[in-house]
Structures
1.
Amino acid sequence: MILESVAVAAAALNQIGSMIETAGQVQGGAQRVMSAILDFGQGLDELENNKKDTFFEQSHSDILRIQMMRRQQQRYEQELESLLSIADPILLDQYRQSKREQVEKRKAHQKALADAARRRKQLIQQIITISAIVITGLVAAAIVTALIIMVLK
């Protein structure tokens, strides 16, 4: 799920809330709710990361709304866990495992991004160093060539 704005995130959260109400009445809806909550959490994480990567600061209302959505997401997850503990304990274990895997994947992805940024910075530094050495070598070669020409004249 790709969340491009706080308003889209709020609409998605309202949809998850209605799905939880439906899942309480129908047992088969628990998997859809579980998937929607995981997707919403991932989308909200991406929204926050995208906001951090841009040069625009978030407004205070957007920050507050995102935090309120996080809290509401946590409440929905608790309701879902309560519902699954009664209806399907095996599915609850799978849901918890999926959440753990999602957290691990997100950490691995963030680490990979940090490693790529570090490697990119190191590459730029190497390019600058090599360029400086080449320029210095060319200047030295030009000076030596000019001296040889002056001596031979």
2.
Amino acid sequence: MKEDKDTNLFDLLIIFFRWIGRCFNRLFAGIGWCLQLSFQHLVLTIIICALGIAIGIFFSQPERRYYNVEGLAVLNGPSADITKEISKQLEWTLPQTIHSEQNLIQKCGISSEAAKSIKRMETFYAIDNLNDSTIDKIDFNNKHDLTDTLNVRLQNYLYFRFRTKRIDKVSEIEQGLLHYFNNHPTMIEWNKIHQQQLNDAVNMYNQQILYLDSLSKKAYLDDPVHAKLTLHQNSLIIGEQKKQFFHEEISILQKQLRGKQIELVCDSLPLYFPAHLTVNPRAINGRMKTIAIALVAAYALSLLVAAGWRYRKNICNYLLKK
């Protein structure tokens, strides 16, 4: 029985490698056929490939190059889901038409040159993998599993990316995006709620600090002290009575209060870009990349034309056959 199993496995390996060999034979045969067809119609191949290179050079000129512009936006109040829905009103306008350009100009308050330069705009969620409220990656594929409770979407961040061929208009486009989002009624309403929550937190910390401070005054200032005073392990001993210091608790509350006060000052806008929008210096349609793609496409087209010319009689007979 064991020998039969070994024999069957050996036969399967032989069949597999024979299939691999046939695949390589067909691949080399196909490459040989393409080279033969190219040399038989060398002039046609050279002309079409030269045209492809010329087209690649034309579309990769500096004034026709597109660049990715990216930036992380911080959201103060509105969630990433809400902001993404609002941003779709801009994303939908970007298959460029005269109406969409006017719509973009009206909503963002940017010039027509800046609106025409935008080719595509997208937004992506920020993902937290370590459950520490910090960004670990950006979901560029928009395929994050919503049932994943360990790696979650951060609702106070949203990543923006758009393509433009006018990098001198990036600053204007950024101001236009800020104008659109920070003047949107839904964004303003959620920001007001966020501001109120911060104000409530600041008031709560102030009350807690005053409460602890009043306890300290009651314990150490209001009571007459006639006994011997000694200090032991963050506690003041008055006679035989031991009283708790509140310096550490007050210091912690003051630190938390300062954090909330900073948030209150910085979070006055529903959305802002802390590091502004940055331009990727590598063009999407760079010269070498565009020429290579155009050359491959031109060579494939030359093979198609050459094959059509070689088999033109068969094609005509097939088309004329009743």
